[in-house]
Amino acid sequence: MHNEFKKRGLQLKLVALVAGLLIGVVCGTAHIGAAFVEQAPVPLKKNQTILAKADRIDAVQTRPTSEKEPLLLDDVSGEVKSSAGYKIVLSAVRNELKRGRPTYALKLLGADALAAKLKHSEFDRIKAQIAQSYLIEGKIARAAQVAEEAVKRSGKAVPLAGWVAGQAAWRTGDFGRAADMFALTAHAPQASSWLVAAGAYWAARANIRAGRDSDITEDLYAIAGKYPRTFYGFMARQASGDAYEFNWDAPEMDSGDEEAIAADNNIRNALGLGKSGKLAAAISAIASSKWFRDQSKREALLAFVSAQKVPALTLFLARKTVNEDGAFYDSALYPESPWAPKSGYSVDKALIHALIRQESRFNPYAQSGQGARGLMQILPSTAQFIAARVTGDLSDPHVNMEVGQKYVAYLLKDPVVNNDIFKMAVAYNAGPGNLARWSTQLGQMDDPLLFIESIPSGETRAFVERVVVNYWIYRAQQGADNPSLDAVVALDKPDAIRVASSSPRPLETAQLDTRATNLDK
Which residues are catalytic? Predict the structure, then answer.
C-alpha cells in the first residue's frame, strides 16, 4: 500500500510537470508555477444513469445520479483564489471519492508530497470534502473526526468542515456542538452564500433544540436571511417573521427607447437566436449591444426583452440588471412562461414554473447529454410511458409542459412521495426508484431537511433545494400561501418539537391535484 501511495504521488507530480510544460509551450513560458495560476480543476464526469429497480414503480425518469458522485456544496465564494497545487490534488481526491473510496483518498492526501506543500487551509478544505463523503456514506463518527481535525487547525477558513461536523453532531443528538460547528460555517468570511445561509439556519435549529438564548437564534436567522433567494435564506426570513420584500415591479422604458432598441441589429439578432433556442449565440449578440454595455440603458433593454416573451433571455438579463436603488427585478428573475400545457394547468402552476426554471432556464430547445429534452427536460421514454396519447415534439413547449405536468402528477401520487414537495423533487431528479431505495435506507425521518441533507447524491440535494425555493418564490409572486414552507419552518418551533410524530404529515403543496385557475390572476 505504501508503494501505491508513493506511486500515486509521483503520478501527481508528473501530471503537474507535463501540464505545466504544455501550458508553457502555448504561452511561451516554461515557468510551471506561473503556468498553473489559471489552470482549471479537472471537471467531473457524470456517472452512468442508475436504473432504479422497484417492483411497484412502472416508469422512471432516470438521471445521471450516483451515490458515489462527490458533488458537494460550494465551500467558498467564487472570489477565493485557489493554488495550482490545490486544484491538482483536489482533482485526484475527487476521483477517489467518486469511486466511493474516502479512506483511500484520505491516505493519499496524507502521503502525497504535492499535498504536503499546500497551505493548511487548502489541505483542510480537501480534507473537509473527504469528511463530507464519509457523512454521505453514513459513517458519522469518521466524518466527525476528519471534519473536526480540519476545523481545529484551519477554523473558519474551511467552512465545509464546520458544516460536516455540525451535521455529524446533529445526527448523534449533540445539538450544542452542532450549533457551534454550524455557526463557524455561518461566520466564515470566505464561505459561499449558499453555505453561509445553510450553516446559519442549521445553527439556529440546533440552538433551539439545545435550549439556548433566543437572541442568538434571531441573529443567525438574520445572517441566513441576507440571502433570501437561497433555500435556507428564504426559510430564515419566514422563521424570523421578517418576510423578504421582493421587487415585483416590471422594468420600464419610454417609447423612444423602445424604437431605438427595436432598431438595434444586435438586439434583433439576439431575439431571433433566443426564440430558436441558440442561447449562447443570443447572449453573445445581446452582450455586444450598447444597450447592454451601458448599465444605465440595461433596464430599458430588460423591459424590451421581457415584452418580447423570450423568458430565457429575460432571465439572463435579469441577473445583470438592477434598478436605481440597486434592487434586482424579481419579476424578471422569476419570469412567467408564455406557454402552458396543452390541456391547461392541472398541477400547481408555481411548481411547473419552478421545475422549468431549474431544468432548462426556459429554453424550449434545451437538451441534455442523456437525451432529456425541452422546458421540463423530459426523456422520450418517460413521455412514451406517462403520456401515450399526447402527440407532438418534446421541443414544442406546450407538448413538453403537458407531458411534464402529467409526470409530476404521477409522482405526487406515488405512495413514497405522498404529495410531499421535497420527495417529489427528489423523484423528478433521481427517479422514483432511487427515492424508494433512499427512503428505505434512511428509515422513517420526520425531519424533511435532515432527509434532504442525507440523500447520497450531491446533484439531487442541490436540485431539490433550488426547485423548492423557486416554488416558494413563484407562490409568493402569485400572492398564494406557502403551506409547505410554513410546515417545514414550524418544525423548529419549540412547541412543535416537543410533540413526537409517529407518522409525520406530508409537506403538502396547495391545490396540487386540482386545477389552479386562481393562480392565473
Answer: 359
